[in-house]
Design brief:
The structure is a single chain. By secondary structure, the chain is an alpha/beta fold. Helices cover about 35% and strands about 15% of the residues. It has a seven-stranded mixed sheet, sandwiched between helices. A five-stranded parallel sheet has the order 8-2-1-12-19, with helices on one face. Strand 9 and strand 10 form a beta hairpin. Helix 2 crosses helix 16 and helix 3 crosses helix 16. It is globular. The N terminus is likely disordered.
């Protein structure tokens, strides 16, 4: 080896060593700074300060956990006020062996992009696995039950399509590339169909992306762009959905119950079946909440220093349920969280504008259904057809269905109350106003039996209908009028900041607040909003994990470019 070569190697080693040393110094400084913050927080005295969370969804529950864990705030002074008789918001899961089980929706997780979600649940003990956190429980389960869909798209002839090709033409590619480079402030109120031509909406990509995330042609172009950037890593595997991370049970039992157990152990106060109908704010400049008004006529007057964190909207508000013999009824109630947002938005500036989200039910609705069966014969049929065992296939989409129907067969059991002789699966239709291909009625007017029959006909098993039906315990249709509300076209100012400008004691936590670079309709969005709210209002000088820029990773970009030409 020459002296020149040895010199180059030595110089390179010196540079690498210096870089490594700099990195270690920076890490040490961060740890030292955080230790000082922890010491300062532990020395705080909050007195009789109270915190009121309006809404009992994952955002509020996470906010309470952050207060206890990171602000050293007493749990007994935290109050979670929920208008329903159950916590969890859109993270639901309910039912019995006798009456059948229900999931209004399946909230998919993602290991690479749910940064604050995994960090929070790493500090929440699992209820199922001793000495494990909820994060460890979920990831261990998911790694043992990997997703690889083999029947992502199915056509009208019951043919499983090769969905590896995205189906783009050069115009689609050019428009997609242009969109990803377009500044967000140029996209106010624009829809996806205003940007792309008709061909785009016939591609494999659109059918897969649309049904994975529940986009519509008339959804916000702004939100679609954010999804493409945030989920760039998933673009190349959208045909197999390998990036989907699943919980062991439904989200209520896997996420909400352990989080509630953690809060219970810290004596957090829960008020159920109690609806906040209005909030009074202090006169003058700024935003300071003063009084909470309830549907029973009672009030709570806030003391100096008290804090309010409000779920300003919930996408599963006003949902209705049917059963095997009964369609889900037309909703009679207005969305309780949306109505509260309407009221307070009239009182102060910077509280957003709910009108784009809650005034267009025909655009924001879709319908889900949950099938409960005795035995596993129907699931075995699906397994033989798809090649996927329960829990490994994610979404199956019937792309030519008038309802644009998709189903998901989760790993069994999906509910703790299930016995070995009971199986369930979930499905949904993005177009419940349309007439079915076999049942000549709109999906939202169909009984559970009729919805299941439509599915069986798409699978060409109608000759066996009576045998299949004999094993059914129940099929529960669920109509959700505002489930896609967060995707509505909007102006940048329509969603409020988590802590609005001028606020002294008020924050909003939901899928309807503005968080730069992040994407709505995810668990991460609610958890991130909660962390922002708590850290801002309680002056916690710690890092909130930023959005991971996968869209700037050269390897991810190269793979995405290859995918566009598949």
């Amino acid at each position: 080896m020459s002296k020149k070569t040895i010199g180059l190697i030595a110089a390179g080693a010196t540079v690498l060593g210096a870089a490594y040393g700099t990195k270690k110094l920076q890490e040490g400084k961060v740890q030292a700074d955080e230790k000082k913050v922890d010491e300062e927080i532990k020395a705080r005295y909050y007195g009789d300060k109270q915190v009121y969370f309006i809404g009992g969804g994952i955002g509020s529950l996470s906010g309470a956990a952050y207060l206890i864990r990171d602000a050293n705030f007493a749990g007994k002074n935290i109050h979670i006020i929920e208008g329903m008789d159950i916590l969890g918001g859109s993270n639901d899961g309910s039912g019995t062996m006798k009456d059948g089980f229900l999931c209004r929706g399946g909230r998919m997780l993602n290991e690479e992009t749910y940064e604050n979600f995994w960090e929070l649940f790493a500090s929440i003990p699992s209820l199922e696995m001793p000495n494990q956190s909820v994060t460890e429980e979920i990831l261990n389960f998911d790694h043992l039950h990997p997703t690889h869909a083999q029947a992502r798209l199915i056509d009208k002839d019951r043919t499983i399509l090769d969905a590896h090709s995205m189906g783009f033409d050069n115009s689609d590619r050019a428009l997609m590339t242009k969109l990803l480079a377009m500044p967000e402030d140029k996209l106010d109120n624009k829809t996806i169909e205003e940007w792309f031509g008709p061909h785009f909406f016939e591609t494999n990509f659109w059918f897969m992306w649309q049904t994975t995330f529940a986009f519509q042609k008339w959804s916000s172009l702004f939100e679609f762009r954010r999804y493409m950037n945030r989920m760039m890593l998933e673009f190349s595997r959208i045909d197999t959905l390998e990036g989907v991370t699943r919980t062991r049970f439904n989200q209520y039992e896997s996420l909400i119950l352990p989080l509630k157990d953690y809060l219970d152990k810290h004596q957090v106060d829960f008020s159920m079946n109690k609806t906040v109908t209005d909030i009074d704010f202090k006169d003058g400049e700024g935003i300071t909440a003063e009084t909470l008004h309830f549907s029973d006529g009672s009030t709570i007057d806030l003391n100096a220093g008290d804090v309010v964190m409000m779920t300003n909207a919930c996408m599963t508000d006003s949902t209705t349920e049917g059963d095997f013999n009964t369609p889900a009824p037309v909703p009679e109630e207005r969305p309780i969280s949306g109505e509260l947002w309407y009221k307070i938005a009239q009182k102060k500036a910077n509280l957003g504008n709910p009108e784009p989200f809650f005034a267009h039910e025909s655009e924001t609705n879709w319908q889900s259904f949950t099938v409960t069966n005795r035995g596993d014969e129907l699931l075995k049929r699906i397994e033989r057809f798809t090649g996927n065992i329960p829990g490994s296939g994610a979404l199956m989409t019937f792309k030519d269905s008038n309802w644009l129907m998709s189903i998901v067969v989760a790993a069994q059991p999906h509910f703790k109350a299930q016995d070995a002789n009971t199986t369930i699966f979930w499905g949904y239709g993005l177009y419940p106003d349309r007439i079915g291909d076999y049942v000549k009625k709109p999906m939202k007017e169909c009984t559970g039996e009729e919805i299941l029959y439509e599915l069986i006909c798409h699978l060409k098993w109608e000759e066996d209908w009576e045998d299949i039906k004999a094993d059914v315990v129940n099929v529960i249709p669920c109509y959700m009028p505002y489930i896609d509300a967060q995707f509505q076209p909007r102006a940048m100012s329509d969603r409020p900041q988590v802590v609005p400008e001028g606020s002294t004691n008020f924050a909003m936590i939901s899928q309807f607040v503005e968080i730069p670079k992040d994407m709505v309709f995810t668990e991460e969005y609610s958890v991130r909003a909660a962390r922002i709210a708590v850290y801002t209002l309680f002056d916690i000088n710690k890092k909130i994990i930023p959005v991971t820029p996968h869209n700037k990773d050269p390897k991810v970009l190269a793979k995405a470019t290859q995918t566009m030409f598949r």
